[in-house]
Design a protein that fits this description.
By secondary structure, the chain is α+β, with helices and mostly antiparallel strands. The protein folds into 2 domains: about 80 residues, Arc Repressor Mutant, subunit A, CATH 1.10.10.10; about 55 residues, Dna Ligase, domain 1 (2-Layer Sandwich), CATH 3.30.1490. Helices cover about 45% and strands about 15% of the residues. The strands form 2 sheets. It has a 3-stranded mixed beta sheet with strand order 4-3-5. A two-stranded antiparallel sheet has the order 1-2. A hairpin with a 6-residue loop joins β1 and β2. The termini are far apart. This is Ferric uptake regulation protein. One of its GO terms (molecular function) is DNA-binding transcription factor activity. It comes from Johnsonella ignava ATCC 51276. Belongs to the Fur family.
């Protein structure tokens, strides 16, 4: 079950006796970028540019804790082990559908409802597979980026 940010913070406050400013800054940045994936280095640069002091190790440690708590999703690129992070749906629905990310702008669309039902039915009927949606992302270009890059509908 996915925990809310408040539950995670309450548990850690009890366990450690304090909350860190770094975690507050990290969560603030993730929340303000909730519709796209962000990297640890991007978060670190944001904190540094805002005049606050932290280090990259602290950012990674907090991202790992937030991932373990089910607040954010860690997506690892299989070709280079580079990881990015995204806020999870607090209602827990992200394990029940696929995500589509635009390679141009980074926007993430949640594929739900009838479209997801059709994909599940097709894959089960045609291939005999059922989908495990956690950690599943499709890549493409949104209509705006396709126009900007003059890309065809089908790539």
């Amino acid at each position: 079950m996915i925990k809310s940010l408040c539950e995670v913070e309450s548990e850690e406050t009890v366990q450690r006796g304090y909350r860190t400013k770094a975690k507050d800054e990290i969560m603030s940045y993730i929340l303000s970028n909730k519709h796209r994936r962000v990297s640890a280095s991007e978060i670190y640069e944001h904190i540094k540019n805002s005049g606050k002091h932290t280090n990259l190790t602290t950012v990674y440690r907090n991202l790992d804790k937030l991932t373990e708590a089910g607040v954010i999703l860690k997506i690892k690129n299989s070709s280079d082990d580079y990881s990015v992070y995204q806020l999870l749906d607090p209602d827990g629905g992200c394990d029940e559908h696929l995500h589509i990310q635009c390679r141009g702008c980074g926007h993430v669309y949640h594929l739900e409802g009838e479209a997801m039902d059709k994909i599940n039915a097709c894959l089960l009927e045609e291939c005999g597979y059922s989908i495990i949606c956690s950690d599943s992302f499709l890549l493409g270009y949104c209509s705006s980026c396709r126009k900007d890059k003059d890309l065809p509908e089908k790539h």
